[in-house]
Specification:
By secondary structure, the chain is of the alpha+beta class. It has a domain of 82 residues. β2 and β3 form a beta hairpin. The longest helix is centred in the last third of the chain and has 22 residues. It starts with 7 loop residues before the first strand and ends with a helix.
Length: 157
């Protein structure tokens, strides 16, 4: 059973080091939500908003996150949905289900971000195919920041 049945939201620029249980911190600047695990174990749960990760919906009063939050790397292995500020416990997943989801997630990221590294003409602008100009190398332009660089900037300033 989830210790926290509801979450209040707080829009913040940066997430505090100490998380208040029952609070969903949302940083639009960093496109990320962070909260203390709803099971009560106290683990920090980070849900980045990207085309391949989570989506946040604000209806003017409450927050929803989609898809579900599966804390497979934490000891508690809790699994829940945050819908209109309510925490809805979901069933546990087998290790096979978790591994299948990790493969699907990796594939979705490769497909999405691989697409972003192609120019409109279809030429790949990744570092492996950059053009050399004199002694310098032209690098990809307009690459989005990585999830880890966003998360790192939230916690290590």
């Amino acid at each position: 059973m989830m210790l926290h049945q509801t979450l209040v939201h707080r829009f913040v620029r940066t997430v505090p080091r100490e998380l208040e249980p029952g609070v969903l911190y949302i940083s639009i600047d960093y496109a990320t939500a962070v909260h203390s695990c709803c099971c009560g174990c106290g683990e920090r749960v980070v849900t980045p908003f990207t085309p391949t990760d989570w989506r946040m919906t604000f209806d003017g009063e409450t927050i929803s996150l989609s898809p579900s939050v599966g804390n497979w790397n934490q000891k508690c292995r809790s699994h829940y949905v945050i819908q209109r500020g309510r925490v809805l416990e979901s069933g546990p997943w087998t290790e096979a289900q978790v591994e299948a989801e990790r493969r699907r997630d990796k594939s979705a990221k490769a497909a999405h971000y691989g697409r972003l590294s192609k120019s409109p003409s279809g030429n790949d602008h990744s570092s492996a195919s950059t053009e050399k100009k004199g002694a310098s190398t032209q690098k990809s332009i307009n690459q989005p920041p990585t999830i880890w660089s966003i998360i790192k900037s939230l916690f290590w300033k």
